[in-house]
Every structure is written in structure tokens, then in C-alpha cells.
Amino acid sequence: MASVSVRSVSKLFGSFRALDDVSIEFDDGGFYGLLGPSGSGKTTLLRLIAGFEYPDAGAITIGGESVERRPAEKRDVGMMFQSYALFPNMNVFANVAFGLTVRGVPSGEIRTRVGEALELVKLAGLEKRRTHELSGGQRQRVALARAIVIRPRVLLLDEPLSALDKALRTGMQIELKRIQREIGITTIFVTHDQEEALTLSDRIGVLRDGRLIQEGAPRDIYERPRTAFAATFLGDANLFEGTVEGDAIRLDDGPPVRTDDPLPAGGTRVTIAVRPERMTVSAGSPAAGGARNEIGARVDEAIFAGNSLTYMLTHGARSVRVFAQNTGAEPVAAGAPVRVSWNPADTIVVDA
């Protein structure tokens, strides 16, 4: 296994800058998620690490060895594609064995290693099945077995679960994490699914327009996003603008609110983010004072989702969303005035 280092990497396709001076360290044995919208550069970064593209600037090392100009077949990297790219004319065994066969591995060793890989992904006994006879989840496991059977130092996954339905995808997230922990391989995966990134990753890199916006542990990025983009892309967030007044922020369309974050000088314009699940909706109008921040709002709709409620509110000219647990109590009726409150610690000052 090996660590991966990407330092000041840029990549252009014509005049389009797909990656712009990106630096990330991928720890040996870690599970790292690259998250971002379409066109953010996450798949380009994966292809540069794999060797399918070469960077225009910067350095890439695997296990301390420079590889940015090394061909893909000499990087000792396994890759699983979004489409799985299985061979329909081959059975499960032949698909998994393909990488070993082209490397000239002896047939006895191929049988042993394919058997171990299929055991790991819980497909033992299906060696003779054709790919069209498999479910979507089984095809995904075949593709994963083919990627790991060559015993690569690094495993790259490009949207590995996007072709599966929600129920199957949730189960495969658990399986994928189990397999990664068992073999201890450095794993880097691309996803646009926020929940998937939070569930699987030890660390996350958020990309936008070819730049790394924020990088760190999933909880750290979720709890303390640095930018409005990171706050709204990784989870839901209510954004407010205001002006610093002493140790508080006076909202443009509301009262002053407090934060535990450091504030710039008085008079400075700032943007704050508040997670919907950190807010509480109560009937009535805000009261003066109190330890919690409070704003007034009107209920537009209360959306029932089984174990939770989503309140769609209007505060001034702004829409506000609040998540609440379903405690069995009747939700506040549409049109009613409410007070929305939250702790100062949950007021996150972000870069707009």
C-alpha cells in the first residue's frame, strides 16, 4: 500500500482549466472522498493519479515515487469505473482474472487470487455466471474484485455506486467500507453524493471550478465549512448576510445574532450559515434577550417525511428551512408566526 501526494497540480484542456494549482495528501490506507459538482475537476484529478492524463504543472507521487509522467500500466493502481466496464462475453471468473492474465500471472496463482477476491466481495460460487445474469449490486462487486485482485497499492473509484438504487447503494456503502478496511488499501473515490462522501470517507476534499475549496475530516467540514459553497454543497445550510456590530452580527433582515467564531472589525459585511437541524421552531414571536439567537418567521409549509419534519419558512424576503424530529406533536400550521432559534456556537461565519 502507499500514500499519494498531489502538489500544485494544474491541468488544461485547450483554454479550459480543469484543475488549478491543487495540492492534496492522501494518507496510506485512508479512504478519501473527492466531492464536487459536475465540472469541478474531481474526475480529472482521479485520471491524473491513474495515469490516463498527464498534468501540465505540478507533481504526483505514489509511495514517495514520482509518477506524473509514468504510464498508467506502470503505476500499480487499480481503478473501478462508473460503468463497471465488464466484458459481457466473459463469465465472472474471467472478468476478475483479466488483469492477472494480461500480466502473465501463472494459472494456479490466478485461481487462488480470484477465489480470494470473490470471497472478499461475497461472490464465491458465482464464478461461472455471465455478467448479464447478475444483479446491479453483483456486477458492482465483480468490478471491485477485478480492481483489487491485482493487489494495487492504490484503489481509485469513479462514482462507484451511482448506478445502484438507493436501498442497494446504502448496503454497498457498508460493504465497500468493510472491504477497504480488510485489505487496508489507500482508496480515493469520486462522488457527487454528499451523504455517500460523509458515510465512507476518512477525509473529504471539496472541489469547485478546478480548485480545492476545503479539505479535512467529514465532521470538520460539515460542522465548520469555510465558504458558503462548502456549507450548501455538503449538506443544507441557511445563509444570512449582515454587518458586524460589536460582538454580534446585525442581519440585513432581522435582529443581531451572536457567534462563537472570531469576527472582523465593526462595520464589516459578513455571511453566516446555520444548519437546518440546529434550528428550533416554536410557536409565537421572538422574545428579547436570551442565550439563543432568535428570528421571527412565518410557516409556509410543514413537510412530513416519516421520522422528521421539514419546515419551509419565510423570514423577511428570505426562505429558511428547519429540520425537526417527528415527536408525535402536531406541526405548527401554515401561515402561523413562529420564532426560529439556535445556539451562537451554530452560527458559522463563512466566506461568501
How does this model look, in words?
The chain has 8 helices and 20 strands. The chain folds into 2 domains: 4-225, P-loop containing nucleotide triphosphate hydrolases (Rossmann fold); 236-350, Nucleic acid-binding proteins (OB fold (Dihydrolipoamide Acetyltransferase, E2P)). The two termini are 39 Å apart. The protein is α+β, with helices and mostly antiparallel strands. The chain has helices at 42-50, 92-102, 107-120, 136-148, 166-183, 194-200, 218-223, 228-233; strands at residues 4-13, 16-26, 31-35, 57-62, 65-66, 77-80, 154-158, 186-191, 203-208, 211-216, 238-245, 248-251, 256-258, 269-274, 280-283, 293-304, 308-315, 318-325, 337-342, 348-350. Helix content is 24%, strand content 35%. The strands form 4 sheets. A 6-stranded mixed sheet has the order 6-7-8-3-9-10, sandwiched between helices. Strands 13-12-11-14-20 form a 5-stranded antiparallel sheet. Keywords: ATP-binding, Cell membrane, Membrane, Nucleotide-binding, Translocase, Transport. Its EC number is 7.6.2.11. This is Spermidine/putrescine import ATP-binding protein PotA.
The top-level CATH class of the largest domain is Alpha Beta
The CATH fourth-level homologous superfamily of the largest domain: P-loop containing nucleotide triphosphate hydrolases
Strand-and-helix sequence, N→C?
EEEHEEEHHHEHEHEEHHEEEEEEEEEE
Strand order, largest beta sheet: 6-7-8-3-9-10
Query: Average pLDDT across residues?
Result: 91
Rg (CA only): 25 Å
CATH fold annotation of the largest domain: Rossmann fold
User: How many separate helices?
Assistant: 8
CATH architecture of the largest domain: 3-Layer(aba) Sandwich
Number of domains: 2
Keywords: ATP-binding, Cell membrane, Membrane, Nucleotide-binding, Translocase, Transport
InterPro entries: AAA+_ATPase, ABC_SmlMolc_Importer, ABC_transporter-like_ATP-bd, ABC_transporter-like_CS, Mo/tungstate-bd_C_term_dom, P-loop_NTPase, PotA-like, Transp-assoc_OB_typ2
Protein name: Spermidine/putrescine import ATP-binding protein PotA
GO molecular function: ABC-type polyamine transporter activity; ATP binding; ATP hydrolysis activity
